[in-house]
Amino acid sequence: MPDDLHALSPLDALRAILGPAGLLTAPEDLAPYLSDWRGLYTGEAMALLRPASTEEVSACVALCAKHGIAIIPQGGNTSMVGGATPESRPGQVILSLARMNRVREVDALDMTMTVEAGLVLTRAQEVAAEHGCLFPLSLGAEGSAMIGGLLSTNAGGNTTVRYGNARELMLGLEVVLPDGGIIHGLRRLRKDNTGYALRHLFVGAEGTLGIITAAVLRLFPAPRETVTALCAVPSEDAALSLFRRFRAADEGAVRAFEYMSGTGMGMVFATIEGTALPLSNPVNHYVLVDLTASREGAGLRTLAETVLEAALIEGEIEDAILAESEAQRASLWRLREEHPEAQKRTGANVKNDVSVPVSHVPEMIRRCSEALREMIPGSRPVPFGHLGDGNIHMNLVQPEGMEPSAFLARSHDIMDCVNAIVRDLGGSFSAEHGVGRLKTDMMEEWRGGAELAAMRAIKAALDPRGIMNPGKVLPGG
């Protein structure tokens, strides 16, 4: 830190580091950053920091560490669990990575792309495509979510069944530590067996151990053939059987396998303009299947038709449609991606981002739906999500006519109800959304003992003053 900053107040020193465009304090400028996307949390901050380089991040963090100022790192602010929202307490700043949005390098031979943390996911996908490659991470918030936040939460999404979570798509990281030190780990290596793999500490840590400023991402060959099908299935078990059938036919072709309930689809049709069911009749269960191949002439359509014909004979599907164009494919995917917005428009809802072993998904959906209806008569379970990797969003929408505030007052009862069943089935209370502020109270019961003690020890070692994203992930932290 330059000596001439020591005589300044913390805010003036931060302003000197960042310049006029890099530090905002006006209430109207701060407001969009103080609340989460779902409207669950609103906090306070004395300033918004907008660094334009890793060096500026480092200088800001070092200054904040010196003065004991808490830092809330924020990317696209799309967290579903309040992971990027400040608490209501003085002495903290929000650090936005939005200005750090450059693509530093693309190597189509190495199949890597080095990008800054503020790059929006859709832009990362576009840049990869411009180089004849694929960056496969895909999720509903991809038009707003940023690479740093996606890695900090180990985001999942629709293609995990084929490509894995964000962790599996990262080779190296550049990270600013809580004292301002910089880990220069932007290595493009598939093999690097040189001690602790520190990069993996920061993936999924939700900004509590440091600030990811850049990353080396893995790329893949661009798809040259794609087939998408929407299927009506008679039950949750039939959906799982259909997944097994596609996987047995060609496991490498299955890029996504998504489950939607009839209730959720009905909400989409009722609230989202321009959506309609492309099948003959509405049913209680649907599956969206996405197949891709990186070579031409892979015969995916023939494969899909063969699998669906056999499934129809066995009673595993009742109806199906194969997309005939890119526009139709996009319309089928839209039915899946509009589920969160449709639920929001239908009424107050409680979200449960849970996972169980894939083989237990049907049982989990049935048991949770029955338990929730019994707990709150008239409530509407809306299970949907990534059947292929065991991650179902077991959401619940309020009964018609019930006061939203009264329904939301039962949020933790609803989550406890779902989590009890998920735990019985060997699952997790957070599959891809993280812990954030919403679920810290669950950590003691689910990850207590030696596991939580190890997490606390890591936090204390890297962030002894507790300035990095306080109140997130660890209970009492």
UniProtKB/TrEMBL annotation:
Task: Keywords in alphabetical order, please.
Answer: FAD, Flavoprotein
Give the range the annotation lists for the signal sequence.
none
Looking up Gene3D superfamilies in the UniProt record yields: 3.30.465.10, 3.30.70.2190, 3.30.70.2740, Uridine Diphospho-n-acetylenolpyruvylglucosamine Reductase, domain 2, Vanillyl-alcohol Oxidase, Chain A, domain 4
All residue ranges annotated as the FAD-binding PCMH-type domain in the record: 41-222
UniProt organism field: Roseococcus suduntuyensis
Give the Pfam families listed for this entry: FAD-oxidase_C (PF02913), FAD_binding_4 (PF01565)
Query: What is this protein called in UniProt?
Result: FAD/FMN-containing dehydrogenase
Q: Which GO molecular function annotation, any one, does this entry have?
A: FAD binding
One GO term under biological process is:
respiratory electron transport chain
Q: Which family does it belong to?
A: Belongs to the FAD-binding oxidoreductase/transferase type 4 family.
The Swiss-Prot or TrEMBL record lists the needed cofactor(s) as: FAD
Domain of life (superkingdom): Bacteria
